[in-house]
Design goal:
Elements lengths: L1 H27 L1 H15 L3 E14 L2 E6 L2 E7 L6 H13 L3 E2 L5 E3 L1 H4 L2 E6 L21 H18 L3 E3 L6 E16 L2 H6 L1
Parallel strand pairs: 3-6, 6-7
Antiparallel strand pairs: 1-2, 1-3, 1-8, 4-5
Helix pairs in contact: 3-5
């Protein structure tokens, strides 16, 4: 009986030591966990804008041109789950102020606002797709259709109120998008939640 009690005591002591080590490790690495959580938030909550500097671009639906611009930006817009109006507004602000047009010295120092070009926004639900595995994309990260439509339309209305000319594709439609990429110049823009929350 005495030996059994001693064994249990030793086992209990080893368990306590193991628990203390685990708690110490967690305490030492809490900042890593916080960074991982912050990164996950960034990954899962971003409006995406794939912008292309163009000399001309147009969108056709059913054989008819529904929107067209001359020199300016064609932007494919992808909305992800959890995105809000704040992210959409911040992305639009970045698009209008992003310096992708050349100045007199040939450097990219002029924004769409500076150049006075057109802005053509096209909804693109495939942009948020998860392509990390297999041979088929997963659209789980994409926002639900109603939410994606709401945020895209908000972005178009907002753009129209602060810039001209502005055109847009049709959410959910089978579109044909034609463009002449100038450069070529193409950039992938994503808006972090922290940016939209602090501005």
């Amino acid at each position: 009986m005495h030996h059994a009690i001693s064994a249990q005591a030793r086992l209990s002591g080893r368990t306590d030591k193991a628990c203390k080590k685990i708690l110490t490790w967690v305490g030492d690495n809490i900042s890593v966990f916080r960074q991982a959580a912050s990164f996950a938030k960034w990954v899962l909550k971003n409006v995406i804008g794939l912008l292309q500097r163009v000399t001309e671009a147009r969108v056709e639906v059913g054989g008819e041109i529904v929107a067209a611009i001359g020199p300016g930006l064609l932007v494919l817009v992808g909305v992800e789950r959890g995105d809000t109006v704040a992210e959409a507004d911040r992305l639009l602000e970045r698009l209008l102020g992003y310096r992708v047009f050349s100045d007199t010295a040939g450097k990219m120092n002029r924004s769409l606002r500076d150049a006075g070009g057109g802005l053509l926004l096209v909804p693109q639900f495939t942009l948020p797709a998860d392509t990390g595995r297999g041979s088929r994309p997963s659209f789980t990260p994409a926002a639900a259709p109603d939410e994606g439509r709401r945020l895209f339309q908000h972005m178009v209305q907002r753009a129209t109120s602060v810039h001209a000319p502005v055109g847009s594709g049709c959410f959910g439609a089978d579109m044909r998008v034609a463009l002449v990429n100038d450069g070529p110049v193409t950039f992938w823009l994503r808006v972090r939640p922290r940016e939209s929350e602090t501005e």
